[in-house]
Amino acid sequence: MLQIHLIVGSVMGTATELANTLSQHLETAGFTCVPNHEYAQGDLERHQDAVTLICTSNTGMGDLPANIAALEQELHNAPPPIYGRHYAIINLGDSSYPSFAESGKRLDELFQDLGARPVADMLIIDALEDSDPSVPANEWLDKVFIPALTHLNNADA
Ligand SMILES: Cc1cc2nc3c(=O)[nH]c(=O)nc-3n(C[C@H](O)[C@H](O)[C@H](O)COP(=O)(O)O)c2cc1C
After folding, report:
1. What's the predicted TM-score (pTM) here?
2. Which of the four pLDDT bands, split at 50, 70 and 90, describes residue 156?
3. How far, in Å, from the CA of 93 to the mean position of ligand 1?
4. For an engineered disulfide with 101, which of 40, 66, 93, 147 has Cβ 3.0 to 4.6 Å away?
């Protein structure tokens, strides 16, 4: 069964709380989920056999939270070998900011530039529209992410 390396970026706890919900949901669906709340250089390589799921908020002016900033630095400065790696991104922002969801979109570009393969289109959650991010996230898990993982799992079997 596939393992999911769940990398979390959060300032005030919304993305952290959502990641806990995601983790429970994925475990219930039969996947092993390894949450990472403080990304350190090399973590992508340490979980090279896992699917990478990023759940991050935006802060500053389109910046990543401090607990995930090392991931963007690594992708820029010392790119890890993630060619072919399956990944997906849940991007929490607020459309009242001009830099709406920009940091998650930057991560997506960096992953694709290095040859990683999205298993699903990025889920963008706008705090202005969704007061409870677990609603769109659970729907995305059930309709998009879990079916894609199941497909991968069957292909690997
Ligand atoms: C100081 C501050 C700066 C923010 N900057 C952005 C931003 O540049 N772009 C964006 O889309 N959302 C921005 N947001 C909105 C947050 O990303 C959004 O509220 C998110 O749900 C917060 O998640 P967290 O509690 O996990 O940090 C900002 C929020 C705060 C408080």
Report:
1. 0.97
2. confident
3. 5
4. 93
